[in-house]
Amino acid sequence: MPIDLYRIDDRLIHGQVVVGWGQPLDIRLIILVDNAVACCDWEQDLYRMGVPPEMELVFADVATAVRDHPKFASDPRHSIVLTGDVATMHALLSGVGTIRHVNVGGLHHRPGRTQKMRYVFVSPEEEKELRELIASGVKVTAQDVPGARAVPMEAVLGIADAADDSGSAERSA
Amino acid sequence: MTSSPGGDPSGGEVQTPPAPRAIVAGHGTFPQGIVSAVEQITGFGNVFIPLSNSGLSGEDIEGRIREHAKSSGISVFFTDLPAGSATIAVRRMMREDPSLILVTGTNLATLLEFVFRGEESPADAARHSVEKGRAALDTQGNR
Lengths: 173, 143
What we know:
The complex is a heterodimer. By secondary structure, chain A is of the alpha/beta class. Chain A contains eight helices and nine strands. Chain A is globular and about 45 Å long. The model of chain A has no long low-confidence stretch (mean pLDDT about 90). Chain B has a domain at about 20-105: Rossmann fold (3-Layer(aba) Sandwich). Helix content of chain B is about 45%, strand content about 10%. Chain B starts with about 20 loop residues before the first strand and ends in a 7-residue tail after the last helix. The model of chain B has no long low-confidence stretch (mean pLDDT about 90).
């Protein structure tokens, strides 16, 4: 079964992921791709405690996630691939090559980031990477929860032809 | 046990507001809402400091909780979802200080019980509060 969602969310495992998306999509597998978490047992235990028993949580660094992507994508369970930042998702997409849609679910305030939406703040480097993804044909949308409208990242970043959509999209989210 | 959190009310004197003894952290306005319910029912909403995770990164949530816990000397934390970012933040704090106490799945009955257990140790008060909160969950009617 194809992976249901590729999500960038700096909170990683939290309510929106486990419950907000997990329940309506019937998610049974979460692949958390993060080089730091992948090598830290304590961090993994912390996040494992946050998922219900019917959900499997797999940890992988980027290289492992790229290598094992075919296995994840053919798993019969509904699944989410989760990264905590744009760079990790960008590296994953570059390595896999077949991922066509990315969800930006939460990039919160941090020094050096500029606010684009209520839950989307990006640094110049992150914006550059998102623009590269879009230019490569990946559909990138901002959407924190399933009930909100998916806002094209072109509109969020003010890329031509979609800029007018940004304000109304944010209000409806 | 039903001791008053603000002192003995039998003397007829105006009670001093109780010092905060716990932080309630969670999603949206859940913390403010449930603490306002405690205030409406008991008049002792000040036992809790409500903190929302809205719009904050995991680091900032943890930073806010740490800051309030330190300034108020608080070691008990009530959160809503076991998978929530506030819960994750407190668990990170517990790594450094195993004496901290975390209650997840908080409901109103849990907090009301905690209010009136101010003379117990934080651990005992939290344990008794969880028992009360769990017992309050029920389903009625089957048609």
